[in-house]
Amino acid sequence: MFTQRAAGIKREFGSNVGGIGGGFGGRAPEVITHSGYPHRLQMYNKPPELEITIEEFESFALDRLQVLKAVEMAQLRGQGTDDCRRRINESLSKYLPMHSDRMGGTRPRQIIAERRKDHISHFILRLAFSRSEDLRQWFLRQETALFRHRYREVDSADRQSLLNEISFDLKILSPQEKAKFIEEMDIKGFYPQDEQLFEVDFRRVLDLVGRRQAILRKGRAYIAQSNLATLVINEYQKRLGRALEICAKALPRMDEDERLLPILQNMSSQYGSQEYQSTNAAGAVTADSVDSLTAHFPLCMRQLHGKLKEESHLKHFGRMQFGLFLKGIGLSLPEALLYWRKAFSRMTDDQFQKGYAYNIRHNYGMEGKRTDYTPYSCGKIITTNAPSSGDHHGCPFRHSGQDKLRAMLFHGGLKDSEVRDVADYAQKGHYQIACTKYLELQIQKRRGGGKPSVLAGSQANSGVVIESITHPNQYFDLSLGDGQLKNNNSNGSGKYAASYGSTQNYQR
Amino acid sequence: MLVTLPLVTILVEEDRDSSQTNDERHCSEKGRLFFADNSSPILPAAVPVQDILSVAKLPGIGQVASTIRKRMMSMALHKYLLTTDQVAALDPTKSFTHREFSFTIDNDVYIRYQSFKDCDEMKQEIIRMRPNKIDIGAIFTVQPKHAKMVQPGAFKPLEKELVFDIDMTDYDEIRTCCSGRRGVHCWVCDEQARCLDDAERKAIINYLTLIKGGSQQSKKVILNGNEEIHPHISRSLEIAYEHFDEIVLRDQGILDTEEQWSKLLSLIPDEDTRDTIDKIWQEDKTDSSFMKWEEFEDTLEKKMSKRGSNKQLEFTQKEIVLQYLYPRLDENVTTHLNHLLKSPFCVHPKTGRVCTPISPDDFETFDPFKVPTVVELLDEINSFEDQGADSQASTPDDHNAEPPRHASRLLPDYKKTSLKPYIETFEQFVAGIKKAAVKQDPLAF
Ligand code: SF4
């Protein structure tokens, strides 16, 4: 019965980039080498071509989902730390163990079964999570993190065998070539001395290039062995991203089995794809009342609001970030037009109509593609479109200098020690945690009427604890609700995280 | 070949391999070209095109500009755009017909996604619409004017020049002279560069960007103390140091007044050092910037020898030098295939100056105030034609020579003006791209 389905799945996964090549034997038992799963790490190039029962279908997928959730959680608690590593490993050994074929102690039959489960479960989730852009993003992020984790855990023979499978133009420089290159570029200390040097098209290692961890010469990137991981992981991410898109395109034409559909939907709904839904009905806020609400704005929006008042103007990205936020708190289109018209006081009506009104209507889905744009999440604000000279958008915790940030916090009524605490988080790259802390202190102060707490010790310290800030509008709602979301049903707290990823650690 | 741009080099120093001749230099496969962007603000409204002579006498530059543009701009530009044709051997005209043009007409109305079947059609449209500004976009999968007729996903940008943009306004916080609204574009036009996608462009610009942060961050260059300095940075530093005294201390005098030097002080993260230096400077406020900088260097050295090796202190000076001299690149212009580029040879509305190409040889000597203005150009055309008439009158019976007046008609207008050398620079550049494309194309003979 399931054969038909499996074939269906196969068709949809389409892009069959190369086969499982190589043939790295090592000391692996023959059975494994000649099975469909010669490598411990897979690129998942080929969809599964086998029959499985519907029960297996469901349990495999749910197990993998457990792992992906664990990966996400572990990363939140501290990406790259030992603790993170341990958490992922725990979850893996419980739900998705994959033993080495060279360590002994595990029967070949079991090893093959483990790899098969890894393979199949990956493809089922791929299918389940290709339905929307948000889901695809989430899946891609977690799968890539999982792959990165595994790549770091396995030994060099396993890595080598994976490299063989990927096979792309990668030139290893001979010691002489390496010495010559280093002399020509005059870069003695740049690469680790005892490592091999690789040359590859710069387009394969864009992030190494962007972070200047490679050296560019004539379109070729020169990378150290220690960066090879990045290369492999990038390749994995790129291929998976492409495959997900292909899958998404094929999805509407897929004759899905009625029995699978609910399972797939259920799977992905565990990571609900709702967009940020404003709890504030449009019209709740008027152009005149915006100024009275600024106490509930997160710092990023206070900054934009302040600059808008000061300069009677904001540049494009500032207008986008602030404008969509206002939309999110319930400023309707007519009110928004009124608000911005007043704010751009130095402009003639004509200039405003020509240059800006269109964009505002656009944000409300009344022009152009008619997309109803949603307010930016912290993740988006923090990671994309960093402000440059003259810009005021971005996240102060991320994009302001320490001095400016401290001044802002101080201005926000924080005590010296509190300023230090919050700024510290920001400096370590925990921007959203810093923001969360800031709001907690604000709420605490408001409850205490601004007076210092008479209770010393534990009670004073325990303070207010709120859910992590992942979205400026969530900040607003929380601040307005004194730490609670208005419609705080069981699902309520998850909705921001679900649609925009969660609190993340950012690499400076 | 894709260039690995040591941008500082391109901008303030001569190219390393100066062995090549001039022609090869700016027309080499490197395929880069620069434009002095004197044209940031858009031109005021244009009036109907009249007889050149009478238009030239009108006061409004916009009108003149429109005339000039009609006669000259499109031809030179068209040459480049057509060159990419020869590169796209598959469809000889796609790179022109599928290229987006955008016009800005009266009242700042933007008309995007225009495209033309050939040079004549483009000229006619320019005359008809009298745009105040023309921007150039990407080459698309479909003729941009037909964008609405295809499925949303089917209309996609394919190619565009890789462009680096430096805007004077980004220097507001550090410069002490000159007015804004000027800048320079660097166009990299060889095939590989044109075909880069957004992510690839982004990686390149990140590789090159050292100045980061908005108005809320005064310290914009931070070198990572845990890592070896990247060769791109060390090369940039070498070049920056060479010019620091002259440009930053002498020309800009960044330490002359307290207001100026307090900006530099804010870039020193170490409080103790900052205070020491401030004290020294306060003692004799009228010292020259040179003196003060020397005092700053001395202080840093003393602090370092006292505290032992200290990366932060060691880097402080380097970071400051870079913050003042490293090119400030507009990331968005480089990153997006779909970003519009200001058209070469357009005219600044206030000064009437033309946006001209600069050869890398001429950076040091290039003077933005010496580029021709529209009014001058018209005068030149007119006097050229007057002269033609004169000389014809004076040699009425020379039957062998071609009648000069006739010749002047045949000559393209730009050749009669001081724009000529700029257009020639452009033509040489285009010829270079062609040559490189032929070399790369295995099917070409
Ligand atoms: S963490 Fe989010 S809400 Fe807070 S300031 Fe930054 S972007 Fe704004």
Task: Tell me about this structure.
The complex is a heterodimer of chains A (508) and B (445). Chain A is mainly alpha-helical and 508 residues long. Helix content of chain A is 55%, strand content 3%. Chain A has 23 helices and 4 strands. In chain A, strands 1-2-4-3 form a 4-stranded antiparallel beta sheet, with no helix packed on it. Chain A is globular and about 75 Å long. The two termini of chain A are 52 Å apart. The longest helix of chain B is centred in the first third of the chain and has 27 residues, at 61-87. In chain B, strands 2, 3, 4, 5 and 8 form a 5-stranded antiparallel beta sheet that branches. Chain B has a 4-stranded antiparallel beta sheet with strand order 6-7-1-9. In chain B, 46% of the residues lie in helices and 10% in strands. By secondary structure, chain B is α+β, with helices and mostly antiparallel strands. Classes of the chains: A mainly alpha (508), B alpha+beta (445). Chain A binds chain B through residues 185-187, 189-190, 202-203, 206-207, 209-212, 215-219, 303, 350-351, 354-355, 369, 386-394, 396, 399-401, 403-404, and chain B through 1-4, 107-109, 152, 169-170, 172-173, 192, 199-200, 202-204, 206-207, 212-219, 228, 230-234, 266, 328, 330-331. Residues 298-300, 378, 381-382, 395-397, 431-432, 435, 469, 472, 475 of chain A line the site of iron/sulfur cluster. Iron/sulfur cluster is lined by residues 298-300, 378, 381-382, 395-397, 431-432, 435, 469, 472, 475 of chain A.
